């Protein structure tokens, strides 16, 4: 079987989890290979996401590693055997890989949390807002490149707009609501979309107002995607060197606690809707 040239973030996550199980068992790659009757190179390829793994072999690996977490094993089997051809694949070689990885992550997520301080979360953005944002940040791009990114972002909204949407919660700072990425009418339309979506049963929007005392969490922006089990959750953060996918268990626990802290100081959903309504009237 040919080796993969560029594994996806989902494939890499599966490989990482299998390596973590082996490390937790205190078993070397050579020992793991011997117990399965395969070569050390094959174990290495699986743990680098260069090669896939069958359900039978994955369950054998988990048994050899003394993993008794049945829900985790089942979730890993699903990742290993999934053959979904998602809409994002049409953007291969047209957009940077992180765009595709994020769309795939969202598609498989059990729930999604967003925290934003300067911009409206991508899933809540109107087309005009997204276009203004991409045009400003990438001023050197021709219109066709901007259109491609806007199109991709609008398609990502499917996870909260489809008939079986995932639970979604957004914590947004007042600054993001007040910054006019586009013109006044565009800002009004953007706020109206957030307010309308917040009425849905599966959507929760909370606002952090400027007049909140003792708030020092403005550097806590994140995308939190829930996995099939908590160990498979993922945090996505934008950094100076690009998009980072965080999956270490200790870090996930830290970001879960951080989200709950931000949630606790924000306005409740009803007061947040009233807050947005007031901003709309100001425009």
Describe the protein's architecture and organization.
It is a single chain. The chain has 283 residues and is α/β, with parallel strands linked by helices. It has two domains: 9-81, 434 Repressor (Amino-terminal Domain), CATH 1.10.260.40; 87-126 and 156-282, 2-Layer Sandwich (Endonuclease, Chain A). It is built from 13 helices and six strands. The chain has a six-stranded mixed β-sheet, sandwiched between helices. A hairpin with a 2-residue loop joins strand 5 (234-239) and strand 6. Helix 11 (184-197) runs antiparallel to helix 13. 29% of the residues are buried.
Quick tags:
283 residues, alpha/beta, 434 Repressor (Amino-terminal Domain), 6 strands
Distance between the termini: 60 Å
Overall 3D form: elongated
Please give the largest β-sheet.
6 strands, mixed
Uncertain spans: none
Helicity level: 40-55%
CATH superfamily of the largest domain: Endonuclease Chain A
Radius of gyration over alpha carbons? 21 Å
Query: What is the highest CATH level, the class of the largest domain?
Result: Alpha Beta
Count, helices = 13
CATH topology of the largest domain: Endonuclease, Chain A
Q: Strand-and-helix sequence, N→C?
A: HHHHHHEHHHEHHEEEEHH
Residue fraction in strands: 5-15%
State the CATH architecture of the largest domain: 2-Layer Sandwich
Tell me the total number of β-strands: 6
* Arithmetic mean of pLDDT: 95
The domain count comes to: 2
Strand line-up of the largest beta sheet: 3-2-1-4-5-6
Q: Helix/strand/pairing class, anyone?
A: alpha/beta
């Amino acid at each position: 079987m040919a080796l993969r040239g560029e594994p996806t973030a989902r494939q890499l996550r599966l490989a990482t989890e299998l390596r973590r199980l082996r490390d937790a068992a205190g078993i070397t790659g050579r020992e793991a290979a011997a117990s399965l009757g395969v070569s050390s190179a094959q174990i290495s390829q699986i743990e680098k996401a260069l090669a896939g793994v069958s359900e039978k072999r994955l369950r054998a690996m988990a048994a050899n590693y003394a993993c008794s977490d049945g829900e985790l094993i089942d979730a890993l089997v699903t990742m290993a055997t999934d053959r979904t051809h998602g809409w994002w694949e049409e953007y291969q070689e047209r957009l940077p890989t992180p765009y595709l990885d994020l769309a795939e992550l969202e598609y498989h997520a059990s729930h999604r949390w967003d925290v934003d301080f300067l911009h409206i979360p991508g899933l809540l953005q109107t087309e005009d807002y997204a276009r203004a944002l991409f045009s400003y940040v990438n001023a050197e791009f021709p219109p066709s490149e901007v259109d491609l990114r806007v199109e991709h972002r609008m398609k990502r909204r499917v996870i909260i707009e489809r008939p079986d949407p995932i639970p979604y919660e957004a914590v947004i700072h007042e600054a993001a609501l007040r910054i006019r990425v586009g013109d006044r009418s565009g800002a009004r339309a953007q706020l109206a979309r957030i307010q309308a979506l917040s009425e849905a049963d599966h959507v929760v929007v909370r606002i952090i107002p400027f007049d909140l005392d003792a708030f020092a969490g403005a550097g806590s922006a994140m995308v939190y995607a829930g996995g099939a089990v908590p160990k498979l959750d993922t945090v996505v953060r934008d950094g100076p060197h690009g998009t980072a996918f965080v999956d270490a268990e200790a870090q996930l626990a830290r970001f879960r606690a951080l989200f709950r802290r931000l949630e606790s100081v924000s306005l409740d959903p009803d007061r947040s809707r009233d807050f947005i309504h007031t901003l709309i009237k100001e425009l």
